[in-house]
Amino acid sequence: MFHTSVMAEEALHWLAIRPDGIYVDGTAGAGGHSALIAAQLTTGRLIALDRDPSAVALASKRLAEFPQAQVVRAEYSDMVETLSALGVSKVDGVLIDAGCSSMQIDTASRGFSFQADGPLDMRMDPDSGESASAMLRRLSETEIETLLRQ
Prior knowledge:
Blueprint: H1 8-15, E1 22-25, H2 32-38, E2 45-50, H3 53-63, E3 69-73, H4 79-85, E4 93-95, H5 102-105, H6 132-138, H7 141-149
Parallel strand pairs: 1-2, 1-4, 2-3
């Protein structure tokens, strides 16, 4: 059973998908919005990005039935470079559903949960960067205050 995407109808309405268009889902997650976009494409193309390796695996599984869809492990902040590397210079629409996903919050070991105990990690990509607990150990109280204010 796949996760049900939030505001899917509204997202699809505003994307105004053309069957031959090129679209990017910058936060693929479990692939819900991506699958809805890909289902409307014939000769078009969907590039689904996510920085979370678990999300990339889920989205890849969910989108396997759509040859017009491609899942790429990348941050949406690197979208231009990622698309350029794929030979895409322009797109017809971009969807970004920013923030933590229920998939991350529901998995206590990811460190985002407020419902279950787990390590204080809080990285969108658990394979890179510094965990929240390591950062808290390293930073001074003043640096933490500055970080939170900014």
